[in-house]
Design brief:
Order of helices and strands: EEEEEEEEEEEEEEEEEEEEEEEEE
Largest sheet: 9 strands, antiparallel
Shape: elongated
Radius of gyration: 22 Å
Strand content: over 45%
CATH architecture of the largest domain: Distorted Sandwich
CATH class of the largest domain: Mainly Beta
Number of strands: 25
CATH topology of the largest domain: Glucose Permease (Domain IIA)
Distance between the termini: 31 Å
Number of domains: 2
CATH superfamily of the largest domain: Glucose Permease (Domain IIA)
Number of helices: 0
């Protein structure tokens, strides 16, 4: 869901001619900038959220100076010099190949397991858990601690924790139980103060109530539920994530405060009421 792989090939001759970079990526672009005596490799993050990028450079007859580590976190809406490339001997053929992998979020997030989250719907409303931790359908690996709440389409979705809206999608009109719909989910992403990101998925078409950059409080309405994306029925998928590395996300177990009391592990089939 939040991973990508791309490559940039440069073959530089003594006259310093070269192949242009590929078309711009939707989220991450790696580009070359000509400087006096070297080429600067710039990682451009075109989204508001932080990303973890693994930038690999293979080269011949080239000196590589790293400005950032091979795997590093890049701020939202940033352009960061990651490396400098220069010829070891400019009289001979020199070439280099740059590839990158990326994941949404940062690696150094420190989630506090004692943080209390509200249920992601309006106070007094009740919703049934249809898939909990390690759910048999999709809650494995990076979604291990996510929770799915059954919701009639159009139910008000609320922020479970305060933060800043860093990503959203509300243009999808399709969904279904086939994996071909996996990238069609409407969603809202909210960055928390500890570096984690709360994800609210399967929202209704044109059903997002907030804007990127907006600060929201816990309990604030942020969207309307739906069944877009890889979905068997109308529901809300909620989880808290950070980047494990440039290849995958990790999810965190969270504690909800509910009308029934403190809930550390929402149970499939149980109904919980928002406090």
């Amino acid at each position: 869901m939040y991973r990508a792989v791309a490559a940039l090939l440069m073959i530089l001759l003594p006259a310093a001619s070269g192949v242009e970079s590929p078309k711009d990526r939707h989220v991450i672009r790696v580009r070359r900038v000509e400087k006096a005596g070297y080429i600067s490799v710039v990682v451009e993050n075109r989204k508001a959220y932080e990303v973890t990028v693994a930038l690999t450079i293979a080269a011949e007859n080239v000196s590589i100076t790293r400005i950032t580590p091979e795997t590093a976190t890049y701020p939202g809406n940033s352009q960061t010099e990651a490396a400098r490339i220069s010829a070891t001997d400019p009289n001979w053929l020199w070439k280099w190949h740059c590839s990158f992998r990326w994941t949404k979020g940062r690696m150094d997030a420190k989630h506090n397991g004692k943080t209390l989250y509200l249920l992601p719907f309006e106070k007094g409303e009740s919703c049934r858990v249809i898939q909990g931790h390690n759910g048999r359908l999709t809650h494995r690996d990076c979604n291990r601690y996510a929770v799915d709440f059954a919701m009639p389409e159009g139910t008000t979705v609320c922020a479970a924790r305060e933060g800043i809206v860093v990503d959203l999608k509300e243009s999808s009109t399709v969904g279904g139980p086939e994996k071909k719909f996996q990238n069609e989910s409407n969603f809202v992403s909210i960055a928390h103060a500890d570096g984690t990101i709360g994800e609210y998925h399967h929202l209704k078409y044109d059903g997002v109530l907030v804007e990127i950059g907006q600060r929201v409080t816990a309990g604030q309405p942020i969207a309307l539920s739906g069944s877009t994306g890889y979905s068997t029925s109308p529901h809300l998928h909620f989880g808290v994530y950070s980047a494990a590395n440039a290849d995958r996300l990790q999810s965190y177990p969270i504690i909800f405060t509910t009308h029934q009391g403190i809930v550390a592990k929402p149970l499939e089939g149980r109904t919980y009421t928002a406090k």
